[in-house]
């Protein structure tokens, strides 16, 4: 029994390490906080150890969802994601200095700052992690149509290049 | 666009450096620090909230403790003589209670007009000496009285002599006439410097003729310096009071009552007399020259804006007509009057502040402010509570009329009013807010401040028991309460500080 457990843990660690680079970068882009991204991913790893994902299908989406949820929890005293998004950029936390520096070095950094956290999550999940709109909807707990609309809004804002911030 | 964006995102995000792979799955120590910081922050928030909630209670407890220490060390409790009116209307007395002990130290027979149960109807006393009109019938033929003024040293609480007025035959009246007032009707007043004594007696049928005398109080002669008779017309029976307006002016206030019912006055005549008791101004109530039917308070105040001028507060207790603040000249002429709508309620009293504002407190209660310089009304504000959320569960302040004496007294600086209102509240007249409320005492029947304004005395009526409560004027906290008083006093006449004991 102990041997099975160790084997599952080892397998889970290998899987986690395989997804870690892309998930870490995606979370940095969404959360705009490197430290928080590390914390959230580490907790997602622990969560996977305790309660492994139901299937190997869409593991990236599962880790992304769990990490975002843990990030909210770690920050503490935060509004739920959807309500938080509802009030828009007013609720955006301050970006840590080291992440600001990082974003300044990226061409994408300025565009990410224009989006809300939900818009960043949808854009990054779709264009970077390669998740489908349905997988994103499952990960964020919203309707697929909402994902499509959010994606459309985000693209529109990025296209305008910062001429409008809501 | 999408393809370009996808490439941009992938290219850019792939440039984000990764943490060392050895740390990917390692528990992160600083997370605990964050949790601790969050816990510390939560603790601080809780402490701030709890401290805020408890601060008021803590401050109150500290203040209570300080006040109790002040009481215990005798700072609040002081030596005062409280002069109380007691007896039935036809045979009235003044008893003296020495505070803070609360023991009765004397009782003087009045058998005459010490006061009525009307608002402000107690005998007018100023200065250190009072003269009680007395009509004694002991050992004399029926309806014959030996009349005299008993001189009382208010600072010693003892009688110091009599001023004989001679024998008088009381008018034969119907037994039902004015059941609430004395048969031998007389009232006195003294000047604030104690040199002049005025006496008014109601004589003739239904007391229509007022006999007014002025005495030199320092000579103690039974021969008056000046004498006058005022004959009034009008309905009902009349009882008079007299109010000094400085050293050489006096107002004779003549109240008309229905003959068989004392409770509802018909109207009030005002006569202003000079030092020789010549009438220099007359305001009979039927002429309607004085507002509110002449129902004006005997608590006349000097006008700070006019030399030797006076301010009257007139208000109809039945609210059939509007009241007014009346400005009188030295010669008793009405210079101006500021109307007070009867919707504001019955005017209980007024005070004049150093900035020459007349504050009128009404029974609603409302604070109406009048500019003494322009005679214009500044505003009228309902008195509201300045209390915590929990205190709002208590009933709001509502003026209650005491059974005797004044239902409101004012602080010496004129800023605060102490109002009988279930049982007693302190009102800041500058803001029209209730700033303190007494608790722990039953209904209040009369109020008076010590001469220095440091002690507030309330005549407390709890069923058949009457006591005097000593309260701190700042907080209305109860500092002491006497044992039950004898003879059922119904009003406080005056408070005087005793002279220190000599060597």
Let me know the average pLDDT of chain B: 80
- Helical element count of chain A? 9
Give the CATH architecture of chain A: Orthogonal Bundle
CATH superfamily of chain A, please? Winged helix-like DNA-binding domain superfamily/Winged helix DNA-binding domain
Given the C-alpha coordinates, what overall shape of chain A results? globular
Largest sheet of chain B: 5 strands, mixed
Q: Whole-Å distance between the termini of chain A?
A: 55 Å
What class do helices, strands and sheet pairing of chain B give?
mainly beta
**Considering DSSP H and I runs of 4 or more, what fraction of the residues of chain B is helical?**
10-25%
Main beta sheet strand tally, sense and closure of chain A:
none
Describe the 3D structure.
The complex is a heterodimer of chains A (166) and B (503). With 166 residues, chain A is mainly α. Chain A is built from nine helices and no strands. Chain A has a single domain (2-160), classed as Winged helix-like DNA-binding domain superfamily/Winged helix DNA-binding domain (Arc Repressor Mutant, subunit A). Chain A is 73% helix and 0% strand. The relative contact order of chain A is 0.13. Among the domains of chain B are: 83-289, no CATH class; 383-498, 7 Propeller (Methylamine Dehydrogenase, Chain H). Helices cover 11% and strands 41% of the residues of chain B. Chain B is mainly beta and 503 residues long. Chain B has helices at 2-13, 29-72, and strands at 80-88, 91-99, 103-109, 129-136, 144-153, 158-169, 186-190, 196-203, 209-216, 226-231, 237-244, 250-257, 267-273, 279-283, 301-302, 310-314, 323-328, 334-340, 347-352, 357-362, 366-371, 377-382, 384-385, 408-410, 416-420, 424-428, 433-437, 443-449, 456-462, 465-471, 478-481, 491-496. In chain B, strand 1 (80-88) and strand 2 form a beta hairpin. The interface between A and B is medium-sized, with 32 and 25 residues.
């Amino acid at each position: 029994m102990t041997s099975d457990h160790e084997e599952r843990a080892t397998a889970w660690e290998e899987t986690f390490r395989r997804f870690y680079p892309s998930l870490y970068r995606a979370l940095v882009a969404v959360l705009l906080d490197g430290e928080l991204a590390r914390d959230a991913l580490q907790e997602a790893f622990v969560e996977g150890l305790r309660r492994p994902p139901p299937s190997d299908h869409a593991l990236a989406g599962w880790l992304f969802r769990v990490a975002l949820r843990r990030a909210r929890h770690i920050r503490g005293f935060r509004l739920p994601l959807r309500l938080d998004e509802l009030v828009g950029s007013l609720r955006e936390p301050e970006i840590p200095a080291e992440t600001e520096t990082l974003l300044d070095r990226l061409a994408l950094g300025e565009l990410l700052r224009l989006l809300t956290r939900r818009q960043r999550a949808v854009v990054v999940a779709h264009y970077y992690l390669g998740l489908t709109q349905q997988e994103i909807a499952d990960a964020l707990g919203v309707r697929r149509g909402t994902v499509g609309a959010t994606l459309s809004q985000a693209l529109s804002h990025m296209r305008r290049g910062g001429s409008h911030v809501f | 666009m999408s393809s370009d964006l996808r490439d941009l995102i992938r290219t850019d995000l792939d440039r984000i450096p990764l943490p060392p792979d050895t740390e990917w799955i390692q528990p992160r120590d600083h997370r605990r620090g964050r949790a601790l910081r969050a816990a510390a922050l939560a603790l601080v928030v809780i402490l701030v909230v709890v401290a805020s909630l408890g601060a008021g209670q803590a401050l109150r407890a500290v203040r209570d403790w300080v006040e109790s220490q002040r009481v215990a060390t005798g700072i609040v409790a002081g030596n005062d003589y409280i002069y109380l009116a007691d007896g039935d209307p036809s045979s009235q007395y003044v008893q003296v209670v020495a505070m803070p002990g609360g023991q009765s130290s004397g009782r003087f027979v009045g058998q005459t007009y010490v006061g009525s149960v009307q608002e402000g109807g107690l005998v007018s006393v100023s200065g250190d000496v009072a003269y009680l009109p007395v009509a004694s019938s002991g050992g004399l033929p029926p309806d014959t009285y030996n009349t005299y003024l008993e001189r009382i040293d208010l600072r010693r609480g003892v009688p110091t002599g009599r001023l004989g007025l001679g024998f008088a035959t009381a008018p034969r009246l119907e037994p039902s006439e004015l059941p609430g007032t004395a048969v031998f009707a007389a009232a006195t007043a003294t000047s604030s410097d104690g040199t002049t004594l005025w006496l008014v007696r109601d004589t003739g049928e239904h007391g229509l003729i007022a006999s007014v005398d002025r005495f030199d109080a320092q000579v103690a002669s039974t021969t008056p310096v000046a004498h006058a008779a005022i004959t009034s017309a009008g309905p009902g029976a009349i009882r008079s009071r007299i109010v000094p307006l400085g050293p050489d002016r006096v107002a004779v206030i003549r109240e008309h009552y229905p003959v068989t019912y004392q409770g509802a006055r018909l109207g009030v005549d005002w006569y202003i007399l000079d030092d020789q008791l010549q009438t220099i101004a007359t305001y009979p109530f039927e002429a309607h020259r004085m507002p509110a039917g002449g129902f004006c308070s005997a608590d006349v105040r000097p006008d700070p804006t006019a030399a030797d001028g006076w301010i009257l507060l007139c208000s109809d207790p039945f609210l059939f007509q509007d009241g007014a603040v009346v400005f009188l000249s030295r010669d008793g002429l009405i210079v101006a009057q500021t109307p007070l709508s009867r919707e504001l309620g019955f005017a209980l009293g007024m005070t004049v502040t150093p900035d020459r504002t007349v504050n009128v407190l009404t029974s609603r209660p409302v604070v109406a402010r009048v500019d003494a310089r322009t005679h214009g009304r500044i505003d009228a504000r309902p008195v509201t509570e300045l209390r915590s959320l929990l205190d709002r569960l208590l009933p709001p302040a509502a003026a209650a009329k005491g059974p005797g004496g004044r239902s409101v007294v004012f602080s010496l600086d004129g800023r605060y009013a102490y109002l009988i209102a279930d049982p007693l509240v302190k009102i800041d007249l500058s803001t029209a807010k209730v700033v303190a409320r007494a608790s722990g005492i039953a209904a209040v029947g009369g109020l008076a401040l010590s001469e220095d304004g440091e002690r507030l005395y309330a005549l407390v009526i709890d069923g058949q028991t009457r006591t005097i409560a000593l309260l701190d004027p700042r907080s209305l906290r109860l500092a002491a309460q006497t044992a039950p008083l004898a003879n059922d006093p119904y009003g406080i006449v005056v408070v005087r500080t005793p002279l220190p004991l000599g060597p």
